[in-house]
Input
Amino acid sequence: MWHWLIDSFLLVCLAYFMIDKLTFLWVRRCYDIFYSLVVHTGGYLIFVDIDDFKSFNERFGHRTGDSILRKIGLILLRESHFRGFRYGGDELAILLPWSKKEKAGELAERVRLEVEKANIGGLKVTISCAVVRYEEDASAFLRTAKRNGKNCVVIND
Output
C-alpha cells in the first residue's frame, strides 16, 4: 500500500547522491560507472576546463567561482542532453557513447561558444575543451589547448 512512498523516497535519495548540488551535473562516481560504456562503444569524451578559474576565485571570491561553475554546469546539461559530469574541481566532462569524433567536436565547440557568450556575473569566462577517446589523454590535450591561447577545442586524432 505504501510502496509508492518508499519508491519515491528512494528516487529522491538516488538523485541526492548522484547529482552535484552546485552544478547539477552527475557526480564523479556516475562518471566512473559510465566511462567504461564509452570505451567499449568506441565513443568520445569531452573534458572541459574553465580558463583562469583559480584567478576568478582569488580576485572575486568563491561565491563568484561557484556561480561560474553553476552556469557552465547548466550549459553543459542543456547542450549535452544531460550527459554532463563534474569530474573534479573546475573540470567537467561529457560522455558520448556511440559518438563520432566529428559530432563530439561540434558539441564541444557549441558548448565553448555558449560559455563565451554567457554573461556570468559580468565576467568574460571561457573554457578549453579536449575531445578524446580515453580519459588518460585528456590532461595532455587540455594543456595543448592552454598553450594555444585557451578558449579553444582540441581534438585527439
